[in-house]
């Protein structure tokens, strides 16, 4: 990439058309994330910022349905980090609990299996993306709560695993 006069020129090459399309999509995603970061800034990534915000939600003094809603929102703020940990083969609850005891800005880097300062390590999310995700999740949740019925696809039954072979190879 070359930057001149406020314009970036990015040349992308690949061995196959499929690989080229994949690279192009990744570059477009990076460009959109960069634009979002320029608009509203960045927060520590990997779900760290959301768990840090959880303390503010938990401190709200609410009653009745509002308190129930705040508890649901608070629990949902842990889910991105929990999923990242589980995708890395770890117990999500353990990682979330440890993050709560760490100082602000420290988070779990699943790629290196280390606890690092997320911003210094370059693990960041655009604030706009994080905010939009929360707003959209709240909107969908509110819609589901006020809906009397939801139509969904019936899950396909899981086939049993293939049986093992005869250890003695009986037919040979």
Topology:
Layout: E1 2-4, E2 7-9, H1 17-40, E3 42-44, H2 48-58, H3 64-76, H4 79-87, H5 92-101, E4 106-109, E5 114-117, E6 124-126, H6 127-145
Antiparallel strand pairs: 1-2, 3-6, 4-5
Helix pairs in contact: 2-3, 4-5
Task: Give a quick rundown of the structure.
This protein is mainly α.
Structure, described:
The chain is mainly alpha-helical. It folds into 2 domains: 1-40, no CATH class; 42-143, GROEL, domain 1, CATH 1.10.560. It has 6 helices and 6 strands, in the order ββαβααααβββα. It has helices at 17-40, 48-58, 64-76, 79-87, 92-101, 127-145; strands at 2-4, 7-9, 42-44, 106-109, 114-117, 124-126. The strands form 3 sheets. A two-stranded antiparallel ribbon has the order 1-2. A two-stranded antiparallel ribbon has the order 3-6. Strand 1 and strand 2 (7-9) form a beta hairpin. Helix 2 packs antiparallel against helix 3 (64-76) and helix 4 (79-87) packs across helix 5 (92-101). The radius of gyration is 22 Å and the shape is extended.
Average pLDDT rating: 88
Order of helices and strands: EEHEHHHHEEEH
Distance between the amino and carboxyl termini = 62 Å
Unreliable stretches covering 5 or more consecutive residues = none
Gyration radius (Cα, Å) is: 22 Å
Question: How many discrete structural domains?
Answer: 2
- Summarize the main sheet: 2 strands, antiparallel
CATH architecture of the largest domain: Orthogonal Bundle
CATH H-tier superfamily of the largest domain = GroEL-like equatorial domain
Q: Give, in spatial order, the strands making up the sheet with the most strands.
A: 1-2
Instruction: Summarize the amount of helix as a percent range.
Output: 40-55%
How large is the share of residues in beta strands?
Answer: 5-15%
